[in-house]
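Dear colleague,

Thank you for sharing your sequence with our group. We've completed the structure prediction you requested, and as agreed, I am returning the results in plain text so they can be pasted directly into your records. Please verify that the sequence below matches your submission; if there's any discrepancy, let me know and we will rerun it promptly.
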Amino acid sequence: MTELTPPRTVADGPEDGTALLDDVEKHHRRFNVFPSDAAFVAVVLWDAHTHLLDAFESTPRIAFLSPEPGSGKTRALEIIETLTPRPMLTTDVSPAALFRSVSDPEARPTVLFDEVDTTFGPKAAGNEDLRGLINSGHRRSGVVLRCVGDGNTQTVQRFPVYAALAMGGLGDLPDTIMSRSVIIRMRRRAPNEKVEPFRERVHAAQGHALRKRLAAWADSVRDKLQDVWPELPEGISDRPADVWEPLLAVADAAGGHWPERARAACLQLVTAARANDKGSVGIRLLTDLRDIFGPAERMLTSDLLGKLAELDDAPWADLDGKPIVARALARMLGDYVTADGDPIKPRNIKTGSKSVAKGYYAADLADAWTRYCQPASEVPATSASAATAQVRSLFPVAEPVAVADAAPDSAAEQSAAR
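Please find the predicted structure tokens below.
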């Protein structure tokens, strides 16, 4: 079994934050296979931040997502359950039950929402109330308004809904939830990736011992984290900054190698999330048009439609069962405006001495490209691999430790792969 740092007593003084987070990471590595070292860093920092919610203005969601079952999402939530305060693991919850559960700050649970795809997936209903509640709970100021009382005596009451939330599911989540989350793209374990089978009656107690240490350490650093604004890596702003600020603050409080590892992980995971962000259909259209235009000042609608339909991995050749047409293109672009505030519309373009056809001007699209499209040069192709190398170089860690006397057990292997 992996050796952990002996827990400190009162006489020993405050817990060493660096050693503690190292031990939490070792605990995860015994039972979880995450896609990168950056993912382990993010999960450990997320575990620790759940003990410090009231020190921050927001709490990032963390989402374990995969294309197929059996990729370790449930196991990730089960290990987190042993480490976080008042965990509430569920696969189905109503908006009313959720906001009632989290509305008491003194008994606020850490919500672990498994099989979340059944709530927000393509075959599920919209569940807008639940989505709104999850989004509101990202901020410490988040509340939901509900009528309380009977008949004419009803009054509007504010219920706080700020709470930590981890999720596991297939596919993707609604964009508004994704943008508030650290995304961990889970995969099935390869044959050479080994973990210990998780035995709850044995290993849960080991996680609970770490949970007590995290709680004690959190109490020792809570005052230092009030109104702290950690330095963010270059290029991290807006919503990604909201997501990562609490995690970076925890890393800074722990010290040692954790601040540097945390910022490398932040860059890697935010870069990966941006690369996987399909955005809205409108933003995808603007981005594809920008690439098609290149240095051209204007292009005919007919040429644009042809080039859009030729793009691989794009919806334009099969939009509602048929290729995109001029009317659909005009309707979608009409939702955006030029630099002068006028809706983008097709204009006449001369095609010969007397011929005119409809088309679009780059000058009309330029403002929308600037506002909605990620700059083409913003994320170099090598940035993700470079960030991965940086994380691995910062803190070499031992491979997951297998139980020496554990005989091959197909049922245990299947359980560990959940």
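Summary note from our side: The chain has 16 helices and ten strands.

Kind regards,
the structure core
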